[in-house]
C-alpha cells in the first residue's frame, strides 16, 4: 500500500462502505421511498476528508476542483447545496467513523493522553456576534496561549502523544475545561473502561481535589503543572516538552487543516466542518499507522 492521497481516499472509502454494510443504522436517515442518491454516503465522507486535507475552505470551489482532478475516484459529484445538506445530515456517521478509525490503530492502546482546548473563531465583528445563528452557543473568550480575545467556540481534545484524537467536544468559549472533560468521559464509558490506569496530562486549568478524585474513581491518573501557592507536584519538570505535544496537534488542525477557516454559519454547519477536520487528522494517522510511516501525524503526503 502506498502513502498518497488517492490511496488514503480509496482505503477510507472501503473502510466506511464496509462499516455501513455491517451497521446500516450508521447511515444518515432518508425516506424509505424516494430516489437513491447517486453519491454514496461513503463517497460523501471521503470527499469531506480530502477537502480538509487539501485545505479547501470553500465547498463550491472544492467541488469544482474535485470534478477536475478526482473524477477518476468520483464519477458523480453533487452541486454545492446538495453536498452541504447531505454533509450536515452525516455528522453522526462522521463521528462514528472517527472512533472506528482511531480504535483500528496501534496507537489506541497508548497509556498516556494529553488534554487541552483551543479557540475556534466564528466571527470578528460585533454585528456578527449579535446577528449570527451561532449567538448563544458562540461566546467571547480569551486565549492565554496567544494572548488574544475571540468570539466563537472551543474545541476540547483528548489525544495520544502521537496525535490520535481519542475524545473531543465543541463548546462555548467560556465552558469550564474540567466539566467538559468530565462530560467527554461520561459520554464514552467504553473508552475509559478499556483504558484503566490511563495517565492524562493537562495544563494548570485542570485542577481541584474533587476533580482529581473524580478522575481517580474512573481509573485515570491526572498529571499537571504546579499552580501558584501549591507544593511542588511530582514530575512537574517533565511536563513542558509533553505539553508542547498538544500545542503541536492543535497547530496541525489550525495550520494544515484550517480549523478556524471552517466557514460555517449555523451550528450544524460549524459542527460538521470541525468533525470533518478531526476525521481528516484521524484518517491520516490511521493510514500512516497502517503503512508503517515513522511520523504518524504527518500530512505531507496528502496535502498536495
Characterization of the model:
- This protein has 304 residues and is of the alpha/beta class.
- It has a domain at 109-260: 2-Layer Sandwich (Nucleotidyltransferase, domain 5), CATH 3.30.420.10.
- Helix content is 45%, strand content 15%.
- The protein is built from eleven helices and six strands.
- Strands 1, 2, 3, 4, 5 and 6 form a six-stranded mixed beta sheet that branches.
- Helix 2 packs across helix 11 and helix 5 runs parallel beside helix 11.
- The longest helix has 24 residues, at 267-290.
- It is globular.
- The two termini are 19 Å apart.
Question: What is this entry, summarized?
Answer:
By secondary structure, this protein is α/β, with parallel strands linked by helices. The protein is 45% helix and 15% strand. The chain has a domain at 109-260: Ribonuclease H-like superfamily/Ribonuclease H (Nucleotidyltransferase, domain 5).
Key descriptive features of the protein:
304 residues, Nucleotidyltransferase, domain 5, six-stranded mixed beta sheet, 11 helices, 15% strand, globular
Amino acid at each position: 500500500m502506498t502513502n498518497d492521497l488517492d490511496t488514503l481516499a480509496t482505503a477510507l472509502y472501503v473502510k466506511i462502505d464496509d462499516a455501513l454494510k455491517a451497521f446500516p443504522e450508521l447511515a444518515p436517515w432518508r425516506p424509505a421511498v424516494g430516489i437513491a442518491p447517486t453519491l454514496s454516503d461513503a463517497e460523501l465522507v471521503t470527499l469531506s476528508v480530502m477537502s480538509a486535507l487539501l485545505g479547501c475552505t470553500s465547498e463550491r470551489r472544492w467541488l469544482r476542483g474535485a470534478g477536475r482532478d478526482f473524477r477518476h475516484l468520483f464519477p458523480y459529484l453533487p452541486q454545492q447545496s446538495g453536498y452541504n445538506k447531505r454533509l450536515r445530515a452525516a455528522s453522526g456517521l462522521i463521528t462514528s467513523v472517527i472512533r472506528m478509525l482511531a480504535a483500528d490503530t496501534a496507537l489506541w492502546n497508548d497509556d498516556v493522553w494529553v488534554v487541552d482546548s483551543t479557540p475556534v473563531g466564528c466571527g470578528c465583528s460585533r454585528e456578527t456576534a449579535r446577528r449570527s445563528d451561532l449567538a448563544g452557543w458562540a461566546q467571547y473568550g480569551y486565549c492565554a496561549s496567544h494572548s488574544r480575545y475571540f468570539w466563537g467556540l472551543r474545541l476540547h481534545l483528548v489525544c495520544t502523544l502521537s496525535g490520535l484524537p481519542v475524545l473531543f467536544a465543541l463548546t462555548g468559549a467560556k465552558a469550564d475545561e474540567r466539566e467538559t472533560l468530565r462530560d467527554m468521559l461520561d459520554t464514552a464509558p467504553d473508552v475509559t473502561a478499556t483504558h484503566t490506569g490511563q495517565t492524562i496530562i493537562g495544563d494548570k486549568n485542570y485542577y481541584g481535589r474533587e476533580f482529581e478524585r473524580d478522575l481517580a474513581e474512573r481509573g485515570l491518573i491526572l498529571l499537571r503543572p504546579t499552580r501558584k501557592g501549591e507544593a511542588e507536584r511530582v514530575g512537574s519538570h517533565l511536563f513542558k516538552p509533553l505539553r508542547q505535544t498538544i500545542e503541536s496537534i492543535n497547530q496541525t488542525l489550525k495550520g494544515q487543516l484550517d480549523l478556524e477557516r471552517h466557514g460555517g454559519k449555523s451550528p450544524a454547519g460549524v459542527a460538521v466542518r470541525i468533525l470533518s477536520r478531526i476525521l481528516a487528522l484521524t484518517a491520516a494517522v490511521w493510514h500512516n499507522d497502517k503503512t508503517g510511516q515513522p511520523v504518524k501525524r504527518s500530512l505531507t503526503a496528502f496535502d498536495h
